[in-house]
Amino acid sequence: MCSSLIDVKFNPLVPEFSVSNLSRSRAFYVDALGFKVEYERPANKFMYLSFQDSQIMIEETNGHWATGVLEHPYGRGINFQFHVENVNNLVESLRAKGIPLFRPLTEAWYRGGDVLYGVSEFLVQDPDGYLLRFAQEIGSKPV
Fold first, then answer.
1. In this predicted model, what pLDDT tens digit does every residue of 28-43 receive, in sequence order?
2. Quick check: helix, strand or coil at residue 11?
3. Which domains does the chain have, with CATH numbers?
4. What is the pLDDT of residues 2-12, one digit of tens each?
5. Strands (E), 22-102
6. Can you say whether residue 138 is alpha, beta or left, with left for phi > 0 and alpha for psi between -120 and 50 degrees?
7. Which of 48, 52, 71, 107 is the 20 to 30 A CA-CA neighbour of 60?
8. DSSP alpha helices (H): ranges in 7-62?
9. What are 125's strand-pairing partners?
């Protein structure tokens, strides 16, 4: 954990997830997926996490950011994509902890102009139902 905020390089966009139980979310993000705790504010039930080049914040619900009633699954209609170095290691870690995948590891090709960009990806829901997509680049090819 960093000793001060000065040590953290903040990304331009950092989503903050409201979670129902910070301890349970910490076990999922830190222990199962390998996110790093950059800093935390235990009195506020808040953590700033990083994973490779991605960053997120998680905070136990407190009504401060509430725009409506939160009910499981949280984050309906959005998924968060994380580009990672090795999706297979993440799948194995989740499997070892008994955490089911929302969608299994698969190869997908997405069109961008005249090029297809390939990824090996899977989706998993966090304990509150946020949908997370982890993708590893596997190359590109012409359409």
1. 999 999 999 999 999 9
2. coil
3. 5-63+78-142 (3.10.180.10)
4. 445 568 899 99
5. 36-41, 46-51, 54-60, 79-83
6. alpha
7. 52
8. 22-26
9. 131
